[in-house]
# Entry
Amino acid sequence: MSLSKHLTKLFSCSHATASAASAARHLRRRLNPPLPPPPSSLSASLLSLHNNILQLLYSGDLTEASLLLRHSFYSNLPPSVHTVNATLRSLLLSRHHSDFLSLHRFSIQSGMPPSVTTHNLLLQCYVSLGRLDTALEQLRLLEKDDSVVTPAPSSYRVVIQGLVENQRLTDAVKLKDEMLAKGFVGPDCKVYNILMGGFAKAGNGDAVVALFEELKEKLGDEDAKVSYGVVCGNLMKGYFLSGMEKEAMDFYNNVMGDGSGVKFGVDSYNSALDALGRNGKLDEADKLFERMESDHDPPVRIALNGNSLDFMVDAYCFAGEFGKAVTIFGKMEKKNVSPGVKSYNKLIEHLGRNQLVATAEAVFEEMLSKNVDPDESTYVLLMKGCFAVNRAIDAFDYFKKMVKSGLKPGLIAHLVVMSGLVNSGELNIAQEVFDKMLGNSVKPSTACFELLLKGYLKVGNLQDGIKIAKQMLLDDRIIFRDEIKELLVGELTKGGREEEMEILYKEVEREKAEAAAREAEEKERAKALEKEERQRRRAELAAKEAAAAAASKAAIEAILGSKRNVDAEEEASADGSNGFLRKIDIPSE
# Structure
């Protein structure tokens, strides 16, 4: 029997070569990658491990959870990708980036097949660390033909969000174009919304409108309506920036109308609320907030969150309605939305800027009564407010309260308190804060030195000014700018002490030379100690080897001596037997 057609023509699933078959299998796997089973399908043992690790994560014991997860890889029941992803997400949210990367590398090396969620978490980690180029490289690895997992819309959102937040808008637009060209993901309204928000923040309203028109063109007018709720707020900001207030409000009224059919989530509501509040539309913002309150029905529907409160606080404060901004906190609590430290900081910032420091302090006390722990920003905002109304000592008291509370003030907090104290003439207290910076593990910056130097020169205290200048010149991290040098020289010249500048430079050169000599001497001493330590270890090793050789020799001698004694006894025994046989005339052989 003969076949008139080639075998591959008759059977669509057959292939001419093994390589072609392998390529076809890989293509099918790439187009339809296998999804990991959901957590509900895990076996009883795997589910028990998953729940145990989740319990540790919820209790905040990330170290123990990571350790248990690592140990489970060596057991007969390795963890599922869902368990690994849950642990990685907790580490990322807690900003334990080094532990995240270590666990991710360990899980991959242990043979766990990563899911798209695993890749997205890695992208988020790189973005959070500011390693945007590394995130782009990782994303392009997913785009390769031999990648088992293809990028999802969320993958592009993570990287584009990072680029936008770091003002790399051109790179973000290029990545969006690359996303469309690769074909893994179609036009994604959330990606466009992120880009529109970035351009709106940069003040480029025309680019915002152009992106919206591009999205409509790619989706079509009917399909684009689905995305109107997502892009509404940023599009309104773009219209407002371009001076198109009528178009902004027409679009808003269109999508918010009863028959629009556009669905709004909490993020979409918040974006529109922010656009209205920032552009003087307080009445419309009030109406929208009331609609959000009526729609809010947790857990069925979430229409309010902490960001909603922040945007309404902004709207009221921009309009000068500070009383309403304070009372809205109580309204949010009735809706089971508890204001966090970010919301309180937002209100305190607005009150401080408008010199309503007493009200800001009352908000701070209320914050403490509600068991909301203030952070460094809270105290910094209170200090700024106190300095603005000439209450320098009260501002310094807030700095001391921050230290007493267990918070470690960073460089910004030190700069704020020092700047305010210097401007208020409290140079002694500012110097005290400066002297304690190193004790708080904070290295003074150039700005810290310049604040004190200018303050001392302003009051004519040249002696302390020279001391600060000397510290600046001795510290290799600090830049002694020409402007500061000219200021110091000018004040010294006014006081008839211009020669002290030359003396200062000579002292600095001498002390630097002495420090370099001490450093070189310490290096030589360290080398000598290291050499001495090596010689000591070699001598110890030689002595141990000699002792071991002597012990071995003694053991061998003992064994040989014992053997000689046994041989001698055997010979003596043999001689005795032969003598007895001779006595009775019996030959030995």
Notes: The two ends are 93 Å apart (CA to CA).
